[in-house]
Design brief:
Structural class: mainly alpha
Distance between the termini: 25 Å
Strand content: 5-15%
Helix content: 40-55%
Amino acid sequence: IREEGKDTICPIDGEKGAAYVHTLQGDDHVGPASIMISYTWGYSIGDIVDVLTNYCESNNLNPKEVYVWICCLCVNQHRVVELKKRKEEIPFAEFRKVFHGRVTSIGHVVAMMS
């Protein structure tokens, strides 16, 4: 995921290295999030695709018109790695504020459960 955005300038901080979502272009690939998916790293990509496909089918939605916010693709992983290298962490209050803002602005969360 990081490889794709390594040479892209991040539109948020202007630095080299962007989130995967910032490498995408065109309405068929990127737009304002319709849903946020809540998952764990234990799920396979196939599991995530199956859940999203089922969600679209169950709600009579065209998958081409459903934009998904998923943290591993929308959070700039380059900055996460940089923080880890410096042995720094994002303070929980800041993380909560950003995450809360995402959830409330999107308005729909699809939770994956085994």
